[in-house]
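JOB MANIFEST
job_type = single_chain_structure
chain_count = 1
residues = 108
[input]
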Amino acid sequence: MCTVGYGDVNPATILGKTFGMIVVVVGVLVIALPVTVIGSNFSVGFNKEEADREMAEKKLLVDERRRLAEEAALMRESVSGSETSSPNFSRLQSLNDDGDSPAVPNRA
């Protein structure tokens, strides 16, 4: 049975009860349909923002890796032309590798 107002008055005729039922169904539809549309649009927008944020983070990682690779290439270039390629450095390196003269003397 449908009630109108505070429940102290309710429809008595078939026409009144039918009208009350229609009002209840329309009221539910008026609330339910916009909620699903708004919820769906919110979900689409939220997922788009999240995908954009993840893409920006990946772009930052790629840029950082590219920058580090460029720095490493520059360091390799600077090292290849520096004193490590000189004959004196090679001679010093071979002396350290012999094992006869340790880099740090043993203190016993």
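[summary]
Residues 64 and 88 are 37 Å apart (CA to CA).
DSSP finds two helices and no strands in the chain.
exit_status = 0
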